[in-house]
Design a protein that fits this description.
about 35% helix, four-stranded antiparallel beta sheet, Rossmann fold, six-stranded mixed beta sheet, 8 helices, alpha/beta
């Protein structure tokens, strides 16, 4: 008897606002063994809902990037479970996991990862082309309008500013209508003006397009664009608050840094 494909029920559009898109349950990640063993994540549990922008912060070595990578299926977990769009990552084979990341996740990193020989539009639609899928033209037009690069779509990356390249990367992440977008320091290589433009775009994608975003950042100003902030320290979630301000985030980070140094 054949086993049903856990990805066969993929919907083209995200679910209603408030639905849980991703969930980590008692997620742990351990590197090494014996005297060299390091616990990067220690039974972390969290939920991420449709139409919500979450920032993940913490001192250096707190486990925030490891958490994002395990949640996104980019790194394996030692124990616990992760679900994305109702699919348990631990049940997937490598090919299925690759397909889930391609179809249901969007990724934005510090490096723009654009192909230099392709135009902005070709870079935006590249993941769909690889998957053999035609873009939803109405959705694509909406993304292009939101990202504000309508007059630059025929340009190659070398002809675009850093901020414009990162907005192309954002549009690429949104083009397949993913259930969730993961950002790992997406403003890290941008100046303040370009960073503000990018964060404004991400905020609009949540408000206007119903996107779900999980973003690791060290920047309190960037975190203030989110609906809530999760704070990690020593591989655990130690605090969370909604409607963050840059000042409140900075105060909390100072407290966590002081505690980390004391330990």
């Amino acid at each position: 008897m054949s086993t049903a494909d856990p990805l066969s029920t993929h919907a083209a559009a995200p679910g209603p606002a408030g639905d849980i898109v991703a969930r980590a349950t008692r997620l742990s990640k351990v590197y090494g063994s014996g005297d060299t063993q390091v616990t990067a994540l220690d039974q972390v549990s969290a939920e991420f809902r449709h139409g919500e922008f979450t920032a993940v912060m913490g001192p250096s070595g707190s486990g925030k990037s490891t958490f994002l990578h395990c949640l996104a299926g980019l790194d394996s977990m030692t124990s616990g479970s992760v679900q994305i769009d109702g699919v348990e990552l631990g049940t997937l084979k490598d090919r299925q996991l690759t397909r889930l990341r391609r179809d249901r996740c969007g990724f934005i990193f510090q490096a723009f990862n654009l192909l230099p020989t392709l135009t902005a539009m070709e870079n935006i639609t590249l993941p769909l082309a690889i998957a053999g899928r035609k873009p939803d033209q109405v959705w694509l037009d909406r993304i292009v309008a939101t990202v504000g690069l309508t007059d630059r779509l025929a340009h190659r990356p070398a002809e675009l500013s850093g901020g414009q390249q990162q907005r192309v990367a954002c549009a690429r992440a949104l083009a397949s209508r993913p259930a969730i977008i993961f950002g790992d320091e997406p403003t890290g290589n941008l100046d303040s003006r370009a960073g503000t433009e990018l964060l404004t775009f991400l905020r609009r994608s949540v408000q206007d397009l119903g996107q779900t975003i999980v973003m690791v950042t060290h920047d309190p100003v960037a975190a203030s664009y989110a609906d809530r902030v999760l704070f990690l320290a020593d591989g655990r979630i130690v605090d969370e608050f909604a409607q963050p301000t840059a000042d409140a985030v900075l105060d909390r980070l100072k407290h966590l840094d002081a505690r980390t140094r004391a330990n």
